[in-house]
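Please check these two lines:
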Amino acid sequence: MKIFLASILTLLSINASAFVVKSISYEGMVHISEPVALRMLDFEVGNEVDDKIIDEAVKKYFKQDYFSDIWVENSGGNITFKFKEKPIISQVELKGWKEGDEETLKSVVQIKKGSLYNQQKLDAAKKRIIEAINQDGKIDSVVEVTEEHLDNGSIKVTFIVNEGEKIVIEKLQYSGVSGLDSDDFDSVIANKEHEFMGWLWGRNDGKMSLADLEYDPLRIRDYYMQYGYLDSVVSTPFVRANFDHYIADMSYQVEEGAVYTINSVSISQTKKVVDDEKIKEIITLVNGEVFNIKTFRENADKIKTLIADLSYAYVQVMPDLKKNKENNTVDVIFKIVPGDKVKIRDVVISGNTRTLDRIIRRELYLGPGDMYSLTDLKDSRNSLGRLGYFDSNTIEEKRVDNQTMDLIVKVKEAPTGNVQVGGGYGSYGGILVSLGVNDSNVWGSGINVGVSAEKSEMTQNASFNISNPRLNDTDFSGNFAVTKSMYEYIGYSVDTDGISAGVGHKFSRHISGFLGYNYSQNSYYNIDETYTALYERYFESYSKSSITPTFSFDNTDDYYLPREGMTFTQSLEKAGIGGDADFLKSRSTFGKFTGLEEYIGFDAILRYKARYYSILNSDYLPINEKLFMGGLGSVRGYESYSISPTEVINGVTKRTGGKQTFSNNLELSLPLVPKAKMRMVAFADWGFIGEESMNEFSRGGFGAGLEWFSPVGPIQLMFANPLNEQPGDRTAEFEFTMGQRF
């Protein structure tokens, strides 16, 4: 009887809650359209529903994550779903850490403007911020989130960060080290012992990098393997931290094992695609020598390039080291899995908002239908970098299948044109006022056009130039320029009107030639009388008509800031093709650029530059055409054109110019403010100049400066000190230049 009564009551309750839907409406819903909302329901008008079905509908809407509250009103079968939307986050800020850093907001915080408020996402962002700070070695960081409701109904979210403290490694010990010097481990590990005055550049500050703790043992073991210790074992570091003073002691346990020498070197190809003997030609591991894992990797990279250049894009070169522990030798096997030959299906250009596609494609050595080549791919990247049109470029390999790939060329446009109205101060020219319009990539066409005028206390210049590095997209180039200049040298001034034109040809990827013609009219004024007493013919007005063939080599990876490669140019100017001046002048320049990031862990660049000029013969050589040194490009620390052979004329020492000059520069460029594209450079210069030989005069300079990719172009600010200064020398402590490659 009780069971029967309970069943009757249950049926009555179900029937009481069930009803027929007459209409469905929505209020307060913004992010979902009404047709979509209706499709999400498991019922429609005319169906019979109950509270359970309504609850399921509410849960479905909640899962969309757009709403903070949902409720339902039922008036005689007329159902109304009412929504309270989550507010929109319109502003996101960081305070106390990485303020104003948009990249950090994007990569770490990951809360976008315009997204809906979500407490779980805010909590996750807090954790990511703390984790990012921990990666810098700081602990006990605290992040608070404040929310400000704005008048427009949106929310401003602010992450207030209180950074913790860095742990300093006071003592670092190694147990079991005997075959190597543990001090040498500092060259490979990130966590090092604090040194006295560790805040100085080049000293160890001892600050712990938590992210590197797990990798440092691997780096030490890799260092051991460079000296043949193939059985070495390095423990994870044992850290004893004092959190009251944020200091720590660290220790490693090392088992070195024996040193292995090479017993044999062999090649194993799963599919023979190149003769083993050709591969062995590029292998530098030698039988009987101590095994070096670094040399092995370098050899493997060379093998990979050799085979990838045969279109085997997915080639793998794997080590197979067979150790003989009885005599401590190792058989080295390069196991090569070439895969299939790969063809380029398509080349997609992206990121070029200004530069035309064809300007980019003509620099690529791979196109649709071509067989893959790793060297061609690298040369294409470097060729794009040498244009100077882009801040960066990458070429991604998108695998389609085992025999096909697409190349995705991504570029980031750099400012190439500007209207410049400005001024400055130069050590030689004094106060400088300039006005110019220049664009090295007019309308994205690759054509360079410039009009400029400048005036300083010592110089006046006006010029117009136009050049095209690839005439009609061929390997020919051409240029035309008109110039007017007035230079005030030491003891005289020169007024020059000139016109020049030329044509060039690109003979290979890195080698090009150019033939130029120049005509100029030159007149002297403000001549020091003591000069004309002995050198009257030097200061006669003259015309110059000359041709200049030039040979150049350039395999650098970037125009303004190369990190690899070298440049070399050689030109011969022959004056006397008509005109008064008659001489033969040789100009040779050389540059070598080496990026040091893989060796020291940050973006340092070492540069060496050299310049040798000589006048080979002359029938009529005006003083304006002779050679001088000093200033940017030769020897910093001295005024431009101030280093020269001299003669005493009427008791006064005068600079008369030389016929041979050599200068060289060594520079170390370091990142200073990467976000602002600003770098610091330290340099040392030394040069020689003379009339009969280069040993007559020598001067040097050293100092530091700033390199800045400013909105109006690359700028160099140099602060120099002279070396080997002699009485009468004209020194300069500060110089600047704009628009030149670093």
